[in-house]
């Protein structure tokens, strides 16, 4: 797909490939009726002021409005202007971002900080172009920088792993293409140095007059971060917690730790922010992040129970055989490519969480 700015209204987004949805739960209601209406209509939501001096705008990802990324713009004292997750850029164009900034009386050249929640191209993709135009530093967690630097080696190891999962022959090529060497993280969208500022847990973003604290929330990727704006009661969650989509885990660089364990801990880490307004990377702003985080954690626990039951019932099964007994929405029989690879990879994480990865037969 090619990138396409906001065009004519598109059909309302249909259910995504089922594995990405938590399913069977009620989703939090939107804070912003404008964003919810735009999402329902398949249109990009307009620029909206969230708090005085803090705006959101949407940038389409590979032309797909349902996949639009919510970009946040935060102004500070002395002309400071931070962009959180500049979104996707195809070939370095910044048209949508430029138009959004124009509507708030600013320009791309005014940007003084580019803060990125994680390395995926729909968040980081426009960062290099924005840095070139503005001179602003890119700020990211060091685990994301490590993942970008080691993307090739990680992809090769992923490919070796995926070949042991017992994927049926007719679907193996698709899995390898999406999960192995063909896998795209943020590479190709940002050139070295990938980051100019490294963000650790508890750090403050350098925005004079603002207080945005880094909260390290690994799981979706190893260096995913959220930003906590205590004075304004805002929590910028990237893809850690979205209102309707279960954004998946272990989708960044390879990590020593189990991304499932990490994600469960990082969901618990949101407990202090029950009263905050959530500014996610996609869909719409919402409240009650604690309920949403608990729903996601419960969903993951349920998956773990299914994996345990499959391991009990089968004698040294392959990863694919276990996953066939886990009720991924739609079932893995209907999945291919990236979704299938992600479901199988998650199955391994669940088995590992149970301390039972050794029972899996590597094909
Ligand atoms: Zn995303």
From TrEMBL:
Signal peptide interval: none
A Pfam family: Lactamase_B
Residue span(s) of domain Metallo-beta-lactamase: 68-282
Ranges of Pro residues composition bias in the record: 1-14
Region (Disordered) residue spans: 1-27
InterPro entries: Metallo-B-lactamas, NDM-1-like, RibonucZ/Hydroxyglut_hydro
Low complexity biased stretches: 15-27
Protein name: MBL fold metallo-hydrolase
């Amino acid at each position: 797909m090619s990138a396409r700015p906001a065009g004519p209204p598109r059909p309302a987004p249909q259910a995504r490939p089922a594995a990405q949805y938590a399913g069977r739960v009620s989703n939090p209601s939107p804070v912003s009726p404008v964003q919810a209406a735009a999402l329902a209509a398949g249109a990009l939501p307009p620029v909206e002021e969230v708090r005085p001096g803090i705006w959101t705008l949407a940038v389409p990802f590979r032309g797909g409005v349902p996949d639009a990324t919510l970009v946040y713009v935060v102004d500070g004292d002395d002309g400071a202007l931070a962009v959180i997750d500049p979104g996707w850029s195809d070939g370095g164009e910044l048209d949508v971002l430029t138009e959004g900034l124009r509507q708030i009386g600013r320009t791309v050249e005014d940007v003084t900080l580019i803060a990125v929640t994680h390395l995926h191209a729909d968040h980081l993709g426009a960062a290099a172009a924005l840095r070139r135009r503005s001179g602003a530093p890119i700020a990211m967690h060091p685990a994301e920088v490590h993942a970008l630097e080691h993307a090739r080696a990680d992809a090769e190891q992923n490919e070796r792993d995926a070949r042991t999962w017992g994927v049926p022959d007719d679907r193996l090529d698709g899995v390898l293409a999406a999960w192995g060497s063909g896998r795209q993280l943020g590479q190709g969208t940002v050139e070295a140095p990938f980051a100019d500022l490294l963000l650790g847990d508890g750090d403050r973003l350098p925005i004079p007059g603002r207080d945005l604290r880094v909260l390290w929330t690994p799981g979706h990727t190893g260096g995913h971060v959220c930003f906590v704006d205590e004075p304004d009661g805002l929590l910028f969650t990237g893809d850690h917690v979205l209102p309707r989509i279960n954004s998946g885990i272990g989708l960044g660089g390879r990590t020593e730790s189990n991304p499932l364990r990490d994600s469960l801990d990082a969901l618990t880490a949101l407990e202090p922010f029950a009263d905050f307004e959530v500014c996610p990377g996609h869909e719409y702003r919402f409240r009650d992040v604690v309920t949403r985080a608990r729903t996601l954690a419960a969903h993951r626990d349920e998956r773990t129970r299914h994996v345990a039951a499959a391991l009990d019932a089968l004698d040294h099964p392959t990863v694919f055989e276990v996953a066939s007994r886990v009720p991924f929405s739609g079932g893995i029989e209907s999945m291919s490519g990236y979704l299938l690879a992600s479901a199988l990879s998650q199955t391994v994480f669940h088995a590992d969480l149970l301390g039972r990865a050794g029972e899996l037969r590597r094909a």
